[in-house]
Amino acid sequence: MPLPPRWRKVWRDLWLHRSRTVLVVVSIAVGVFAVGVVAGTRQILARELEASFASINPASATLQTLAPFGSDLVRSVAAMPAVAEAEGRRTVYVRLETAPGVWTNVQLIAIPDFRAITLDRVLPVTGAWPPPERGVLIERSAIGLVQHAVGDDVVIKTPSGRRKTMRLAGLAFDAYALPYTLDGVAFGYITYDTLAWLGEPRDYNELHLTVAENRHDRDHITDVVEQVRDKVERDGRAIFFMTIPEPGKHPLDSTIQGMLLLLGVMGALALGLSGFLVTNTVAALLAQETWQIGVMKAIGAQRQQIAGMYAGMVAAYGALALVVAVPTGILGTRAFTQLMAGYLNLTVSDARVPPAVLALQVGIALVVPLVAAAVPIVAGTRISVREAIAAYGLGTGRFGTHRLDRWVERVRGLSRPTLLSLRNTFRRKARLTLTLATLTMAGAMFIATFSVNASLTRTLDGMLELWQWDIAAQFSQSYRVERLRNAALSVPGVVAAEGWSYTTARHTSATGGGGSSLLSFSVPLIVFAPPAESRLIKPPLIRGRWLVPQDEQAIVVTTGVLDDQAGLDVGGRLALRIGGRDTTWTVVGVTQGIGPMPFVYANYPYFSALVREAGRAQWLAVVTDRHDPEALGGIAEQLEAELEQAGLRVGLIAEIHQERAEVAAIFEGILALLLVMVGLLAVVGGLGLAGTMSLNVIERTREIGVMRAIGASDLALLRIFVTEGMLIGFLSWALALVVSVPLSIAITRALGGALLGSALKTVFSPVGAAAWLGIVLVVAALASVLPARSATRVSVRSVLAYE
Amino acid sequence: MLYGMAFIRIQDVGKSFETAAGKFFALRDVCLSIEGGEFVAIVGKSGSGKSTLLNLVAGIDRPTQGTVDVGTTAVHRLTENQLAAWRGKNVGVVFQFFQLMPTLTAIENVMLPMDFRGVWPPRERLDRARRLLADVALGDQAAKLPAELSGGEQQRVAIARALANDPPLIVADEPTGNLDSRTADAVFALFTDLVRHGKTIVFVTHDRDLASRASRLITLSDGRIVDDTGGAGRVPVGAGPPAAVPVPSAAAAARVDDGGGPP
Asked: CB-CB: which of A8, A299, A803 is closest to B93?
């Protein structure tokens, strides 16, 4: 049975108006593609993250002790009824030479038996397995940092200051380790024989354990960990660090969810904008075919039959969009998943897009355009035959009746063609509104992305104001402050040096400490005790005051500490266990921290006496006379050498610009992804404008003919339409400026909350606004040139016969 | 066909439109009866209300006041949707600008009303459309798109389309207004033939010569009927009710000039 004529009309309309079909299909496809990529990536990452994380048998908790312990303690913890498995490891911080004279921090984890790792499994990637004696496996995400190839010999400096040459024996994958780019620490794995060769004792300072029951019950885990902690402390080992990851979740789970949520919003936005475009196009299509609708009604078509035809056409647009969006979506999902996996140090073993995502794409490709087209179809097919067949000739689109039109009419002093462009812009108000909405959203997201970047920079600058030092060194043990200062001040370029107390503490009322939305971890409080009059720390105080020299039992805390202690504020009291001692403090001030880590500041003289380390320090803060990264690197090397020479065992060296780069790295990936999505939005916006302008040209063919007849040149016609397009672009830019303000605030709040545990200070980006103005004008000009060119091809004769 | 009662009955009909300048009365107190098989021309100056009257007869528009009955149907009482369904079966509409679907071929345009109303079984539609096109001497142009046909040819396709569902009433608004005189003559001959086969035709024209060839001439001025002549002069109707497929004479078809009229 041949296709009935009305469906043949639908099919031929699709084919004969190919450029319109392509425009609408591409617009829908962009939205469906974006949603498919985001949903697919989300599902694959969630699936792979779970599988990858489960395969390493993650520990329920990890305890680090200040003093080492032996196998007896590990066995006795493992024998506790509430504990399923326990495993000891030893972590040592070394410095690794990446290039002659250039050193980086590496956390070496000694594992007793690589073939029998039960908890927090480390998996082989390339090279030897297990690592040979005097060999090290480097976590694969850090291979770019160490700047050596597998098989190379690398030089390290041990905690005791000795230099050793080791073989870079291979690469390992540690799903539990945060990637170097996000954490700033490179991980290495060695055997206990190698540990002994490095001069370190064959004991443990890290205890990994899993609970026997209710492995996903955080409260239960906390109870068990408290029992273990008490046991360890009774054994005479003070706890230095204790982490309880969110059960069953990857350490970066909340970060990934935050990123995907943001991308999901962007995908939905792209889809919504393509929906606008469909609304616009179908409205224009129906307006253009008004007389055909009238004639069909005149020869007996009922409204639902005509509505069915146009709905069928829209469904065909959706189906064609699927043909484009599904394969490109699968490719996009794979690429995006790999990008995210690389960024997050994940292994994706199966990148197949789940059928549910394909079903989602099919659903939205068919449903969203129909929903978007419903209003114009209902409105367009409601027209009576008389109105429909009377609607011909010049003057489609009313101008002059609206208040806005009268304002526009008052514009004087422009040439007639420019006035025509200006007034034509406001002729089809519904169409203009939808086009502006599309471009405005794209623009607002673009400017907001730049503003988020500027806000991040400002916030980071603000946070790093806290540290007025340029280089800091952390030592494996405490040394006399004078000895540290003398060594540092003898280095050329060092102008000031201070020794601070540095340790960890925990609330005695609760396990762990400040929760961190970034890490999904429970972590201890980090205590810094600088001299009260120190000029090397400048905390951005939110409430209360900074420490004064007379302060005793007084602390200043970061907002991260308050997150975990409901009701605690200035004037409140905080009970802390520090180095095995129970102490009580009064909060005198609250300050902004760096990231979500909970920091506590105490007065050096009182604190050092309290922990029986008077006159000694574990942390050295240094100010240099030059501040550029290159100069700082040079001074840091000399400082390290000088400290070594003085017999001081350096654990870590931190340079302020590296600290900044680590925090910034968390954002860079997200900003890049945001910009990709903004690009998609800009494409949809540009297509929307191109569509609007072509419809305007088609609709005004008769007017173009008349203008031609009275002498309009090609250039004059081109100018009229391009000016109109650019005017729309400019208007959308002005609106985008306004919309970007609340949008920037919302995104910076959401991102700050998800990634830093506190809101970023929102800064508006003039660069973003200026850049978008340039982009939108170029896009508008390009989107108008092609339709305008088709206007110049209209001949007077054809127009007079045009129907 | 309703015997013993006029086929079209228009009673006290008024039609007004709201315009920016206020209310505009297109028709005032019009009363009119048209018998089945009449060939009626409506003439008048621009704005006299002739197209409005035609639209009311065809159910394209509804009166502001009064009643319009066609056959047994009170057209003024129907909703837009009911009007469409009624029109599809009972009225063939011919427009001045032909108004063929530009993306459908001639034969598909003719099949379209059948498709909408489902009067004919799907298998018969193609054959019927072919016969109708042959009747208007366009059997060999069936596969062409409107743009490939001359104005006269397009108007003949439009007439074939108007006859698709075999309606008893044909209305035409300036059917020859866009055609040269020779082509207009040929189209007019087709109309005459249709009336001979029992169709009722009501058309609007500016052309007094063509109008004078109708059996009845109604003149409108300022929305009122000012003259109604020749009501008795019906074209003789063939025996019995109208044929399912009107067959214009070969002579009428041969008179059609394919070369005339703008495309």
From this structure: A299
